[in-house]
Amino acid sequence: MRKDGGDFAEVYPFTGMDGDGVAPGSGLFKAADGSMYGTTQFGGKFGPSGTLYDGYGTVFVLRRGLLLTVQRIPTDTVRVRCVGVPNASHTLLSVTNFNSLNWLPLVSRVADTNGLVEFDDTQTPAESARFYRASQP
User: Fold this and answer.
1) Quick one: which of 43, 54, 79, 84 could link to 49 by a disulfide (CB 3.0–4.6 Å)?
2) CB neighbour class for 78 (10 Å; exposed up to 12, middle 13-18, buried from 19)
């Protein structure tokens, strides 16, 4: 978001359905791992009347998603970068067939203090395609 309040996007639409709460009016608390915690005023478990607005509210967490970039660099190497949770373990995985459910782990590493994990894949297959993804427990 810009300083003038523009250029923003809704991160999560609180609907009150499935116990997710409604009316998130409190401020957010940023935890050491970068996650943001907050509360909703209503929703969650319904109160004595059984209605949404008689609910007790919820505590929620917003976690930063993983951002993955892939770049071919000289010497038939592919550089895979993931920006995730700082100082947390991340696993980079790959497949040569996107329809495959058998993603193979390439490496597990702890992200630096900015959340960056970087890996140079020097074992790129002879096939023309290889797909990458990242996971963070």
Assistant:
1) 54
2) middle
65 token code pair: 């998603």
Q: What share of the chain is helix, strand, coil (3-state, %, to 5)?
A: 5, 35, 60
What pTM was computed for the model? 0.53
Nearest to 109 by CA among 101, 122, 120: 120
Sheet with 116-121, strands from edge to edge, namely 67-73, 77-83, 116-121
How many of the other CB atoms lie within 10 Å of CB of 122? 9
| Span 13-54, pLDDT tens digits | 777 776 677 788 778 888 877 778 888 877 776 667 777 677
Asked if residue 16 lies in contact with residue 43, where contact means CB atoms within 8 angstroms, the answer is: yes
Alpha carbon of 44 to those of 11, 14, 23, 36, 49: distances in Å? 19, 11, 11, 18, 13
